[in-house]
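In response to the reviewer comment on reproducibility (Comment 2.3), we provide here a single inverse folding case reported in full, input and output, so that an independent group could reproduce the run without further information from us. The structure tokens appear first.
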């Protein structure tokens, strides 16, 4: 494991081993729930790519993947709320069992907007799967179907999560120094 010699890191919240183990548990749940081969994981660029690929590889059922990108004025310090799709999915999701895969659900604005938008495209089912849940900052009530970890109200980096586009490639999750 790459250990954090990085000056930006205050403390490690979850090690690579802990993350892999938890993803394996969640993947087992998802594999059991969707044996039909009708499953599609939808990732939100860029943060959820790292989690989505780890999750997909841990699944034991056939799975499709697609990605979208958003632009959002929702961030940890600023006022949240305005979300729009900057790059849409490549394919239709009609009749498919869709899981929206997020790196973190914070205020919930992003996930709610995406779930509502995708629900309007005729999927067979739609659910939400997130690596991290910072429930203390939730503004929009949301049902999270699969959650790996709940985290305290601190800004985190690693496993896809960035600070100014850096640190996504860390294979652990850490609290950024204030
Ligand atoms: P929400 O709409 O407030 O739920 O926004 C969630 C989005 O904000 C995530 O997909 C991340 O891109 C970003 N975000 C929120 N908290 C953090 C954090 O602690 N580190 C890195 N990105 C974050
Ligand atoms: Mg994100």
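Designed residues, in position order:
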């Amino acid at each position: 494991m790459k250990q954090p010699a990085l000056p930006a890191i205050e403390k490690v919240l979850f090690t690579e081993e802990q993350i892999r183990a938890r993803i394996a548990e969640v993947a087992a749940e998802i594999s059991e729930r969707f044996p039909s081969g009708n499953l599609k994981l939808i990732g939100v660029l860029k943060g959820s790519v790292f989690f989505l690929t780890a999750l997909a590889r841990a699944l034991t059922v056939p799975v499709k993947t697609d990605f979208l990108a958003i632009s959002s004025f929702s961030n940890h310090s600023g006022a949240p709320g305005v979300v729009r799709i900057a790059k849409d999915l490549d394919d239709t999701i009609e009749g498919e069992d869709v899981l929206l895969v997020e790196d973190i659900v914070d205020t919930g604005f992003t996930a709610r907007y995406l779930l509502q938008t995708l629900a309007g495209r005729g999927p067979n089912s739609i659910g939400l799967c997130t690596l991290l849940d910072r429930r203390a900052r939730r503004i929009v009530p949301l049902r999270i179907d699969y959650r790996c970890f709940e985290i305290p109200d601190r800004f985190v980096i690693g496993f896809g999560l960035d600070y100014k586009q850096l640190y996504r490639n860390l294979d652990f999750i850490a609290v950024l120094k204030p």
